[in-house]
Design a protein that fits this description.
Structural class: alpha/beta
Number of strands: 15
Main location: cytoplasm
Protein name: Tyrosine--tRNA ligase
Subunit structure: Homodimer.
CATH topology of the largest domain: Rossmann fold
Radius of gyration: 24 Å
Number of domains: 3
Shape: globular
CATH superfamily of the largest domain: HUPs
Keywords: Aminoacyl-tRNA synthetase, ATP-binding, Cytoplasm, Ligase, Nucleotide-binding, Protein biosynthesis, RNA-binding
Enzyme class: ligase
CATH architecture of the largest domain: 3-Layer(aba) Sandwich
Distance between the termini: 57 Å
Helix content: 40-55%
Strand content: 5-15%
């Protein structure tokens, strides 16, 4: 592993965040002598980000921890197009009101990870609609378009993938990389931004922005990407059998996840992922992480509980994390229920299939039927084998799917 002189790059390197950098030595020197302002962009295509975006949020947190200034760039403008990078088809176009609502939902999460304010290292949140919505087409083409080579744009993997598959790439989507490059130029002009960060799939877009900013503003700016975060089995981070792991605990149905379910997601990490996830997604010191990572056999479960509790505390607060851990201990070790379990009010009775769907254990009645038929469903510890079963609820009852999903049915 490369050793850096600045606390910023050394922190990012030792925690496992660095995949590529455009000029690591120059960025390292800059970060060692002055406060670096850096940004990551987040398009508002849903009312919540999911855990796949968490590594980017943590990158901004690490910037601030190392004494530098993070910018959260909301894509109020670019969300009207949608990033085509490595997508098989165009995103559904969103209207202004939907985008505004999505930004409001997404923005809530950042306050958990960053300190916002007017200080030199305080985070700021900006929206690229502030400048993209005001662009005039012909002046923009003359000032900015001349700096982009179509030949080079066609060579980027994100574009070639669609073209090689003979899948349509609209002119609207093709403009996305120009607008993202323009974002870096605007942030450099407005806020003195010197660094753009993002996932490895954003490398081409980041390089475009760097070259544009150098040509138009004459500024030396830098790019840094994170590795693609996958699980030990090769799966995509944040995707589970039951759907995306959302970061919002409150919001529109289908885009939320309770603190307890979030805790469970981390508790269920594979043994091989624990050390890496502790470095990326918690603030625990590296020596403590090394000790937890060295645990073997059943002892590794202690490390998973620490991972789950520390990751949940960052997003939901220490009290909610401790409550989730206590609920899990009561549920799995003591046979109790625990107050943080997901629950649903039944009005006195509910069908078993409806209960499984209402608790979020199954996405549909069809899936619920299969789980009952497989013998995976239990009510108060007893197997439920009848898909037509109606559960009478006069007091709190516990419904379980497999060994890891438990919920409460309330009168």
């Amino acid at each position: 592993m490369t050793t850096y002189s600045s606390s910023l790059l050394q922190l990012l390197a030792t925690r496992g965040y660095i995949h590529q950098a455009t000029d690591a030595a120059a960025l390292d020197a800059l970060a060692g002598k002055e406060i670096v302002t850096g940004y990551i962009g987040f398009d508002a295509t849903a009312p919540s980000l999911h855990v796949g975006s968490l590594v980017q949020i943590m990158m901004l947190r690490r910037m601030q921890q190392a004494g530098h200034k993070p910018i959260v760039l909301m894509g109020g403008g670019t969300s009207k197009i949608g990033d085509p990078s490595f997508k098989d088809e165009a995103r559904k176009l969103l209207g202004d009101e939907s985008i505004k609502a999505n930004i409001a939902g997404i923005a809530k999460v950042f306050g958990r990870f960053l300190t916002f304010g007017d200080g030199p290292t305080d985070a700021v949140l900006v929206d690229n609609a502030d400048w993209l919505d005001k662009l005039e087409y012909i002046p923009f083409l003359r000032e900015i378009g001349q700096h982009f080579s179509v030949n080079r744009m066609l060579s980027f993997d994100s574009v070639k993938l669609r073209l090689d598959r003979e899948q349509s790439l609209s002119f609207l989507e093709f403009n996305y990389m120009i607008l993202q490059g323009y974002d870096f130029l605007e942030l450099n002009r407005r806020l003195g931004c010197r660094l753009q960060m993002g996932g490895s799939d954003q490398w081409g877009n980041i390089v475009n922005g760097i070259e544009l900013t150098r040509r138009v503003a004459g500024a030396e700016v830098y790019g840094l990407t994170t590795p693609l975060i996958t699980t030990a089995d090769g799966g995509k981070m944040g995707k589970t059998a039951s759907g995306a792991v959302w970061l919002n605990a409150e919001g529109p149905e289908g885009f939320t996840l309770s603190a307890y379910d979030y805790w469970q997601f981390w508790r269920n990490a594979a043994d091989a992922d624990v050390g890496r996830f502790l470095r990326l997604f918690t603030d625990l010191p590296l020596d403590e992480i090394a000790g937890l990572e060295a645990l073997e056999g059943a002892e590794i479960n202690r490390a998973k509980i620490v991972l789950a509790t520390e990751a949940t505390a960052l997003l939901h607060g220490r009290e909610a994390a401790d409550a989730a851990a206590a609920t899990a201990a009561a549920t799995f070790a003591g046979g109790g229920s625990g107050e943080a379990l997901p629950s649903v009010s039944t009005g006195g009775e509910i069908g078993v299939l409806a209960a499984l769907v209402a608790l979020g254990f199954c996405a549909s009645n069809g899936e619920a039927k299969r789980k009952v038929a497989e013998g995976a469903v239990k009510l108060d510890g007893e197997a439920v084998n009848d898909i037509a079963a109606v559960i009478t609820v006069t007091s709190e009852r516990k419904l379980s799917l497999g060994k890891k999903k438990h919920g409460l049915l309330l009168p």
